[in-house]
Specification:
This protein is α/β, with parallel strands linked by helices and about 400 residues long. It has 18 helices and seven strands. The structure holds adenosine-5'-triphosphate (ATP) and magnesium ion.
């Protein structure tokens, strides 16, 4: 079991930070227990601040039977209505009251046609306790839903509080961790309790003592920061020479760079001409990389990088709106792109199901862990194909 699950709060009292929010949830649950109808709760706040944990702890502590509607993939209007709609009308088999959890409703996007309005319909009936979670309380798509809910906002958990938690975990696991390490992990986490616990687990793996020297394992963060800097230069500098330099010096696998560029190109090259030009460059880079693979002809890497660098010059218009860079949906490696994309999605759906996360967030939070600890593959019940794919990604 991952430490983030092992040490997740099982009672509301154990939830760290945000005391008044927790208190409101308690009062809400107690009122339902007395048979007093309460408006649905919309819990919002940054990632790893405890939104899902609060819902889960609430169900456990008050003996609600949890019905979780969390995999974005399945939440079409019909399924929402069928499962949650019916559940809210009836008591469970054992006469327990049901708590319906719509986790990460902000991720129910256009893909889930009718999903959000089906949710709204159920909120209006409001026959059993319902909790929704979302990162951003002001997401315009949630306007209708927000109107029907009582909104509870969580803030980042403080560094001090996270330090205390990490110390408790280290003690419970009987590992000695230098104070400086605890402090650095807590700081890095920026209030994201999940990432703090994951980092500690990663550092402590197989050790009895964790010292400052061990912190270098966390440098993957720098790697990710690194790739964002490269993206910025290639996609925004409009300078071929700077872009080429950044790509060459990144030391990253060209296939990896290509995947990041493809994912993020539409965010900067928003004008149709720029976008078409950029994709043209990237597909040429892809052809060159294909030759590297097929003929082991490494000279082609340079041409591929040049094509990628030329993406910078394809941007001829200002972009209309700011869109932050993102993790590639499909880390495309070599050929067989579809199948790999499919496998990757399936891997992170499995991870997400275990960790109560959407596949996208699961990929962001657990990709590196999975690479570092192949043993986790069994924990997440990955099959042989999925394991092989993970191994093949550098
Ligand atoms: N406030 C908290 N108190 C104690 N543990 C927490 C808290 N917040 C997060 N955690 C720990 O981090 C893990 C992930 O937290 P949780 O799933 O509640 O985050 P979240 O707010 O739902 O984030 P996301 O937006 O990414 O879904 C939990 O399993 C738990 O171990
Ligand atoms: Mg969550």
């Amino acid at each position: 079991m991952l430490w983030a699950d092992k040490y997740a709060p099982s009672r509301l009292d154990e939830v760290l930070g945000n005391p008044s929010a927790v208190k409101q949830v308690k009062e809400w649950a107690e009122a339902w227990k007395r048979g007093e109808r309460q408006p649905p709760l919309l819990i919002t706040g940054p990632t790893g601040s405890g939104k899902t944990s609060i819902a889960l702890a609430c169900a456990k502590e008050y003996g609600f039977q949890l019905l979780e509607m969390n995999t974005g993939e399945q939440r079409t209007g019909k399924t929402v209505e069928r499962t949650a709609g019916q559940a809210s009308m009836t008591l469970s088999l054992f006469g327990k009251m049901r708590l319906i959890l719509f986790d990460e409703v902000d991720l129910m996007t256009s893909g889930d046609r009718g999903g959000l309005s089906a949710v709204a319909k159920i909120l209006k009936q409001n026959t059993s306790p319902i909790i929704l979670t979302a990162e951003n309380a002001f997401d315009p798509r949630l306007r209708e839903i927000r109107r029907l809910c009582k909104v509870i906002k969580l803030r980042r958990v403080s560094t001090r509080t996270i330090e205390k938690l990490l110390k408790d975990i280290a003690e419970a696991e009987d590992i000695s961790v230098e104070d400086e390490v605890i402090r650095r992990i807590a700081e890095y986490s920026e209030g994201d309790v999940r990432s703090a616990i994951n980092d500690l687990e990663m550092l402590a793996r197989g050790k009895k003592r964790v010292t400052v020297e061990d912190l270098s394992v966390l440098s993957y963060r720098d790697r990710e920061k690194g790739i964002f800097d490269v993206l910025k230069i290639v996609l925004e500098s409009r300078s071929f020479s700077m872009a080429r330099k950044a790509l060459m010096e990144s030391g990253e696998d060209p296939g990896f760079l290509l995947a990041w560029l493809e994912e993020n190109l539409p965010r900067t090259h928003q004008h149709p001409e720029d976008l078409a030009g950029g994709f043209e460059r990237l597909s040429r880079a892809d052809v060159y990389l294909g030759r590297v693979m097929k003929r082991q002809d490494y000279g082609n890497i340079r041409y591929a990088l040049d094509e990628m660098a030329l993406v910078s010059e394809e941007k001829k218009h200002h972009r209309k709106k700011f869109m932050p860079f993102d993790f590639p949906q499909s880390l495309r490696i070599r050929s067989g792109i579809k199948r790999e994309g499919y496998l990757l999605r399936s891997i992170f759906r499995k991870v997400g199901r275990k960790c109560h996360l959407s596949s996208k967030k699961a990929a962001e939070s657990y990709f590196v862990l999975l690479k570092l600890f192949p043993g986790l593959a069994d924990y997440f019940e990955l099959d042989e194909d999925e394991k092989r794919l993970l191994e093949s990604i550098k």
